[in-house]
Amino acid sequence: xxxxxxxxxxxxxxxxxxxxxxxxxxxxxxxxxxxxxxxxxxxxxxxxxxxxxxxxxxxxxxxxxxxxxxxxxxxxxxxxxxxxxxxxxxxxxxxxxxxxxxxxxxxxxxxxxxxxxxxxxx
Length: 122
Fold this sequence. Notes:
It holds the Pfam family DUF4828. It comes from Lentilactobacillus parabuchneri. This is DUF4828 domain-containing protein. The structure is a single chain. The chain has about 120 residues and is an alpha+beta fold. It is rod-shaped. Strand 7 and strand 8 (about 100-105) form a beta hairpin. The protein has 2 helices and 10 strands. It has one domain: Lipocalin. The strands form 2 sheets. A 5-stranded antiparallel beta sheet has the order 4-3-2-1-10.
């Protein structure tokens, strides 16, 4: 009986030595919705200036009009909406601020500038 328990112990010990433990899954950094809050401007492909405003509740206004868009994705550097027509509107950022706006209905990506910085230049 004693030999059997030593044998079982040795087998389990060897299994534990050679068993590779699963690395803990890397959790992505939590998204901060306030990162996207603010007023931004972009110039469209027709050279018109537009203003995007994102509120603390992530409500999207473009040129002062409520887009009735619903948030579909929020990650650390991307905020994606689906508008009432089913088109995707995406705001992408870098470490500092939002820098790109993608409008699926026109299939264009625009560079974003802070609206406050534009007003200071005037």
